[in-house]
Amino acid sequence: MPPQSPEYLPRRVLHKSCWDSMLIISSFLKIRIHHDSGDSGVATGYSSLTVYSLPLRNTAPANIAVEYYKELTQVKGTFNHSSIYRGDPSPEIDDAWESVSTAVMMPTRITREKLLKIGKEDRPSTVKYREDDGGGYMATLEVTRSTSLSDYYSQVDEFFGKSKPKTHCIDNLRQYMMCQADTAIITFRGFSSEYPDFNTKHQCRKFEKVIAWQKDRGVHVPASHVQRLEAEVDMPYPP
After folding, report:
1. pLDDT (tens digit, 9 = 90+) per residue, 180-189?
2. In this predicted structure, what is the pLDDT of residue 48?
3. Does residue 53 register a pLDDT over 70?
4. In the predicted structure, residue 30 carries a pLDDT above the cut 70
5. H helices then E strands: how many in the chain?
């Protein structure tokens, strides 16, 4: 059904205000290094770089799947860049976004030991699998949840009301960016006034390899088994 049809409800309607907000957030969160740089591109003025251990991160089960590209990846941040992920809502764009978000989002399982190691508690509201389905605790990769945050902005949830779904998604992305504290350098070019050049280079992880890890460990149970276990209780509000 063509996107201009009033019956076509795109799965992904991104309001301009959402993108404006994200642009402002990302602009402020890019860290500029104010010390002089040598020809190597490494900032001078620092005698050493302190690296802190990350005990919680090291316990993430999917860390064994993390592999970086050897070459730097050029992020195409030009506003007129043509991409299958950009443009007016259409079935093709919806399909492209789904292929890297909801289509690869699936449940996996972790043991109680892993649950505790990643800093979670075994509570009555923690969702578990039935023993005849292999037991364990329901889990999924955060990357698949994060990519899906840009979806469904036009949907209205009865619990949250009209504005909270959008602000919830934007704030989650804001926290993710602050946690990563991207140190890529943004330069500026003349366009009426100083204009940021978002075409930066990054050392990216291999997204497909991480997703393959999850697919290999995906849990498939009969729909009739997707139900609350006897010992489970509902939370009074979302976590």
Report:
1. 788 888 888 8
2. 43
3. no
4. no
5. 7, 6
CB atoms within 10 A of CB 93: 20
- What does the longest C-alpha to C-alpha distance in the chain come to? 66
Contact assessment for residue 88 and residue 3, using Cβ atoms and an 8 Å cutoff: yes
**Residue 75 near residue 201 (C-beta atoms within 8 A):** yes
As given in the structure block, the two tokens for residue 208 are 């497909």
Task: Report the length, in residues, of the chain.
Answer: 239
DSSP element (H, E) containing 22: helix 16-29
Task: Reduce the DSSP state of residue 197 to 3 states and report it.
Answer: strand
| Residue ranges in 118-202 assigned as alpha helix (H) | 142-147, 164-180
Cβ(26)–Cβ(177) under 8 Å?
Answer: yes
Q: Position 171: which residue type?
A: D
Cα distances (angstroms) measured from residue 163 to each of 24, 155, 158, 166, 169: 19, 10, 11, 6, 10
Q: What is the pLDDT of residues 100-123, one digit of tens each?
A: 877 777 888 999 999 998 888 898
Structural tokens at position 39:
């020809």
Residue pointed to by tokens 């509000």: 237
Angle between helices 164-180 and 16-29 (to 10 degrees): 20
SS3 state of residue 169:
helix
33-42, 61-70, 226-235: which has the highest mean pLDDT? 61-70
* Residue 79 DSSP one-character state: T
pLDDT of 92: 93
CB atoms within 10 A of CB 230: 4
**Other C-beta atoms lying within 10 Å of the C-beta of residue 151:** 19
